[in-house]
Batch of 2 targets.
Target 1
Amino acid sequence: MTFQAVERTLRQMGDAARGLAAIGAALRLRREAMEVPPEVARRLHDVVAALVPGGLGELDQAQVSASLASVTHALQEARDLLDGLERPAVWQVRDPAMLQAQGQASRVVVRHLAVLGAERPALAAALSGRFLDVGTGVGGIALEAAAQWPALHIVGLDIWEPALELARANVAAGPFGSRIDFRLQDVTQFDDPAGYSLTWLPAPFLSEDAARTALDRLTSALKPEGYLVVGLYAPPPDPVGAALAALRLVRNGGHLWACADVEDELRSRGFTAIETCAGQPVTLVMGRRA
């Protein structure tokens, strides 16, 4: 590719990045009371109108917050790649804003489970017992699950204390403290015979060996008829999106699992009702313990 062609590509990609930032800025204006120069606000409106036909006016406040979290997460992740290429291939985010953005984005997992549970009585039954949330981070999934299912009690595990500090503060600010407990603990060392009805494993954050050990631990933690749900990144169909998704995963120290391989892992541990439920950005592979 010639230098001129590279420059054209970079200009196009730069416009895409600035467009994403413009959408994020417009979402902030929807959510926060901000003094913005009138001409800037007008031009910002023009950019969003060009990028999002129909604009953002139909989004409610919850949708505004979720969309802003997605924008923030993408931009912060991009900056982390640019500035921290030499860092070890592990998930180790320190920036509170990025941690909170990832937590907000993770809530989509609970919404996906709610839709699936409405069509699966056995899964719906599991949503009223005890839920083990592995890799709880700032507690996004735990808080969303507590809000979604009033009878559910949640234990959140994580090995990253900076995230757990934020998780505790997030729970303290809401009404669900009596139903959520956080522990600084590695899932590969988990040995709690409490009888969980639902366990969640975010596979992209674990190595292949660690994920297999975690599956063994979570299987033992489940009571009969309990569900184990494994989250996988769903690579976009286009080559660029797929390559970026794989890069993101390995930078987090994860393993690129195929859905069929995770199904085999569950089957080898005696699970039934195994299925893959496609979604973006997370696909769920789940099974019921016999």
Target 2
Amino acid sequence: MSGSAVRARRVSPPRPLAKARGLGESGWGWLFAVPAVMLIGGFVLYPVLNTVLFSFTDFNGLTAANFVGLEQYGRLAGDSVFHRTLLNSGLITAVATVLLVCLPLPVAYWIHRGIPFRRFFRAVLYLPVVVPIIVSSVAWKWLLDEGGLVNYVLVTTGLTSGPVSWLSDPALAIWTVTGVIVWRAFGIYLLIYLAGLATMPDDQLEAAAIDGAGHVRTFGSIVVPHLRGSIVLSSVIAFVAAMRMFDEIYVLTGGGPANASKNTAYYIWESAFSYFKFGYSSAMAVVLLALVLGLVLLGLRLAGRSR
């Protein structure tokens, strides 16, 4: 067989599968993303859109919903309990976010520098995260009861003249709940900072030590700038989590006493499942969603400008 005949019978190389079927790389990317998009649409977007639609009705879960326009939003404007829950949500969120962003940062640096028993401290600080929220909240409710262990220690040691009403005093209840929230979530933000510190080159810390920089100066001049992305991430996560906090309030105080610790998320649940005001609770949920989304976007924009 001649060489020209062999060349004539050569088969052209097959085209890539994507091109053979008329799809580019981006097309196949979108095709593989379809299952995730369907899940997000079914479990996130659809409930959100349904909530927005319910907010314009008087739906109570028992009878047919009637369109009432902006009536539910008008009721919110005159609802003093809703205003109180917004204030409580703001207080809980502000304090919890600041503590959860700031406190784990030096602790993470302390552990990263190789302290003795670092694995032990890391495990102990993360332990509250893996304990079910209901279990830890019930345990704290027993500990903080007027006849509980905390008051027993305070009275026995003479630090207080009598038991403290941690959960039934309107002036203390909201801060007690906030403290439990911070205690439980501390380990999450500790791990975020430890992951950020793991990417820091050791030569930066060694150079600072050679230059005679102490721990405080090294922390402020090298560690904090390096962890700026982790700080922004922690701030967003802590803010959103605190605004939607429910479990601890439900178990510890039930929103009381006299709405002193009731936040908006708890009020939404109460209106929907205790009083069957699904339309009204949907309006509150829409307002809360808009508020959280707006503040998060504003925070991210300000953080981007500061870089």
